[in-house]
């Protein structure tokens, strides 16, 4: 099991950018990592996933053309770059990790962080 900690959330204005991070003291190099978002009253949404090596990634329609996922295994960190943010992107962004090779595509993860709040408002 791996402990995940998200950071980097905050308050931004519409059209601005923000990068959120997911780290683990125990290492993420053997894990696929995904980013999700959870808004009260709505189902959790799968935003993006990245393979353990970082060579493959997937961004769902939620973040297509605006969000990118990347990782630096030397720093045990996975990033989600959020560009051209909209008020409807306001949510808690959570990262998740799994050793299943296909989890970054399926969106099925076993280990979850607590999330970081992103608020988009003028």
Briefly characterize the structure.
This protein has 122 residues and is mainly beta. It is built from one helix and eleven strands, in the order E-E-E-E-E-E-E-E-E-H-E-E.
**Major sheet summary line:** 7 strands, mixed
Report low-confidence residues grouped into runs of 5 or more.
none
Distance between the termini: 40 Å
In angstroms, what is the radius of gyration? Answer: 13 Å
Q: How many individual β-strands? A: 11
What is the residue-averaged pLDDT?
96
Structural class: mainly beta
What percentage of the residues does DSSP assign to strands (E)? over 45%
Indicate the percent of residues in helices: under 10%
N-to-C SSE string, H for helix and E for strand: EEEEEEEEEHEE
Task: Quickly count the helices.
Answer: 1
Shape: globular
Description:
The mean pLDDT is 96. 3% of the residues lie in helices and 45% in strands. The strands form two sheets. Strands 2, 4, 5, 6, 9, 10 and 11 form a seven-stranded mixed beta sheet that branches. With 122 residues, the protein is mostly beta strands. It has one helix at 103-106, and strands at 5-7, 10-12, 18-23, 32-38, 45-50, 57-59, 67-72, 77-82, 91-98, 111-112, 116-120.
């Amino acid at each position: 099991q791996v402990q995940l900690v998200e950071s980097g959330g905050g308050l931004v204005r519409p059209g601005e950018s923000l990068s959120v991070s997911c780290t683990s003291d125990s290492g993420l190099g053997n894990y696929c990592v995904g980013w999700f978002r959870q808004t009260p009253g709505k189902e959790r949404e799968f935003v993006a996933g990245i393979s353990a090596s970082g060579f493959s990634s997937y961004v769902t329609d939620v973040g297509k053309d605006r969000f990118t996922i990347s990782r630096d295994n030397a720093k045990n960190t996975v990033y989600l770059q959020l560009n051209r943010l909209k008020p409807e992107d306001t949510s808690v962004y959570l990262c998740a990790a799994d050793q299943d090779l296909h989890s970054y595509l399926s969106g099925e993860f076993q280990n979850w962080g607590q999330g970081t709040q992103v608020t988009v408002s003028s």
